[in-house]
Structure prediction request, 274 residues.
Amino acid sequence: MSFKSKVLIASLLALSALPASAAVNNAATGDSSLLLTLIDAARGISATFDLGNKSTFNQSLSGQTWNLADTALWGGAYQLSGDTAATTWSRYSAGGLTNTQFGVYAGDSSGSDIGDRSIFTTAGGTTMNSFNNTSFLSALNSFDNYINAVGTLSTHNTVGLDNGSNIATSGNAYAGASVAYSTNGKIGGISAGSDTTGAIGQNLYVYNYTTTGDLPNSSVAGVKLSVAGFNPYFSLSNDGVLTYVAAVPEADSSLMMLAGIGLMGFIARRRKSV
Prediction:
């Protein structure tokens, strides 16, 4: 592959990671917004970031990134109490990230037939437990309560802005108290469920749950996402970069990425010295 082709692909990947919609959408409307949630139960604080709609998220496209600290990328969408840009990340991370758990979650509860309703979630462990359809629907309803509360606290639903974010310390918008995640990090807060969050720096694999069989007694099993034999995952770095990996990085692609990071560091140092 030529260098020009690789540059073009890299540019397209960057564009694909840009936020796609202004309003936060709940599961009742169909595929909900894809939400990144940060939880620090020790501090009693959580932060929620709208990554765009699940329906437009390409599960096969590797290398998608969201830089929570990049004011230019998010177009000034993160507004909280008069602050702008990446303030949500800076406010949250200022208290430390040692106890932070993160997770990515989306749902669809719009259909009434078998197979219509689904949950897209990260997994903090190596496997995800099955649970019955009653618990599955309860988890979806709890997620809707969470996302609706999130929307009222921030600029998520403000027309004209890109995807928003918020910080919460109480109520359903606080992920540690809402049943969507709860303090135990389990899906829907169900004791039989599986851990859906992990520490910063941890790779969180992706699972899809879809209703099957007769409601409400059938068991719902999580299916680990696979793309050409590779299990995609999300990771979040200490500097606020969320990355979605859906393929083994090529050696030359990794070198190009490292070279780009080095160049950015060189430019930053030159600007600082001027």
Summary: The two ends are 38 Å apart (CA to CA). The first helix runs from residue 3 to 16. The CA atoms of residues 26 and 32 lie 5 Å apart.
